[in-house]
Amino acid sequence: MITFNIAKKPAAAQLQKESSAMNRSVSKQWRLAIVDDEADIRQLVRDVAVDLGFAVEEPSDPDVCTSAHCSRFDVVVLDLMMPGIDGIELMRRIAGDT
């Protein structure tokens, strides 16, 4: 017989309290770019990132995400399958490999 222990999820208020405490302890506000063609996914990632204290931007066009543009972000969240360009190619562009 296999048993699983499932930890109880912390209440939303507790998560918010912990993330607020974490934000106060960090002097720098991290910058995050969300590159995804689906608005629902961008909104979900944005909501979580903002709750965690990130400054969030959503470039309107993946083609603007070049090494020069995206180097100002600490974190870039990429969709792997977008029309016109995939996330792997975009990651190469950001890294300056092409």
What does this structure look like?
The protein has 98 residues and is an alpha/beta fold. Helices cover 41% and strands 12% of the residues. The protein has a three-stranded parallel sheet with strand order 2-1-3, sandwiched between helices. Strand 1 (31-35), helix 2 and strand 2 (55-57) form a beta-alpha-beta unit. The longest helix has 14 residues, at 12-25. It is globular and about 40 Å long. The mean pLDDT is 75.
Summarize the structure.
The protein is an alpha/beta fold and 98 residues long. It is 41% helix and 12% strand. The longest helix is centred in the N-terminal third of the chain and has 14 residues, at 12-25.
Helix content: 40-55%
C-alpha Rg (nearest Å): 17 Å
Report the uncertain regions. none
Average pLDDT rating = 75
Profile the largest sheet.
Answer: 3 strands, parallel
Task: Report the structural category.
Answer: alpha/beta
- The fraction of residues in strands falls at 5-15%
Tally of DSSP helical segments: 4
Topology:
Layout: H1 12-25, E1 31-35, H2 39-51, E2 55-57, H3 67-70, E3 75-78, H4 87-95
Parallel strand pairs: 1-2, 1-3
Descriptive labels:
single chain; about 100 residues; alpha/beta; 4 helices; about 40% helix
